[in-house]
Amino acid sequence: MDPGGAIGGPIAIQTYHESEIQKAIGWFAAYLTSEREDYYPAGQPLSKHWREAVQEYFEPALLDQVRVVELVDQRVPNPWFYPHAHDKGLRNLPDITHKAAVTFLDVLVFNEKITKRDLFHGLVHVAQIRAMGLHDFSELFVRGFLRTRSYFLVPLKAHAFELDARFTANPEVRFSVEIEVDNWWREGRY
User: Fold this and answer.
1) Is-contact 131 178, C-beta < 8 A?
2) Alpha-carbon distance 50 to 115, whole Å?
3) N or C: the chain end with fewer CB closer than 10 Å?
4) How many Å is the maximal CA-CA distance in the chain?
């Protein structure tokens, strides 16, 4: 693969000044925080049904902390900073209004009905944020997107997709998401 190609590589991220990257990281962290604050009051604890579906994979403290919101006749809008990102030449930003769910720290907002796989995927992101903190998560997400130029190839997303695929394909094979996240974090895979 060409290291300077459209998919990413070391040259892709160098097209932005570090001050611009830091600003984007701050915007992303602020977005996650403000949306969490907006949706938290409407959030409900995991129902017994959903908790039982995922409890073998996540620590009880994480499941106790999480709130879920199922939107009706509305969808999560795209982030306020998207026009700025487009002005800076960023394309391929995910259209949040078409995502099944969005994770805002410890609040999972579903644009559609909750499904087991979407719930699991969102909980992986909660585990990632808990393991590394908001700043490091935001930095890794933004830098990953700038490097890969693809939402789906950001290592944080790719790992969540990998884990939710394992969960879906073999639900009888249990694993700890927190251990998986800690291993990737410790190994520098994010």
Assistant:
1) yes
2) 9
3) N
4) 49
Give just the sign of the alpha carbon dihedral 190, 182, 105, 63: positive
DSSP 102: E
The string of DSSP letters for 69-87 reads EE-SS--PPPPTTHHHHHH
Q: pLDDT of 40-98, one tens digit each?
A: 999 999 999 999 999 999 999 999 999 999 999 999 999 999 999 888 888 889 999 99
pTM over 0.70: yes
Q: What is the DSSP letter of 184?
A: H
169: pLDDT strictly greater than 90: yes
- Report the chain's terminal Cα–Cα distance, integer Å: 20
Residue 42's SS3 state is helix
- Cα–Cα distance measured from residue 117 to residue 104, given in angstroms and rounded to the nearest whole number: 17
Q: 136 to each of 3, 89, 181, how far by Cα in Å?
A: 25, 24, 13
The SS3 assignment for 67 reads strand
CA separation for the pair 148, 5 (Å, rounded): 9
Task: Give the CA-trace dihedral at 143, 79, 159, 133, to 10 degrees.
Answer: 70
Domain chopping of the chain, boundaries:
10-186
Collapsing DSSP to helix, strand or coil, 103 comes out as strand
Tokens of 30: 């602020």
Cα gap 120→139, rounded to integer Å? 23
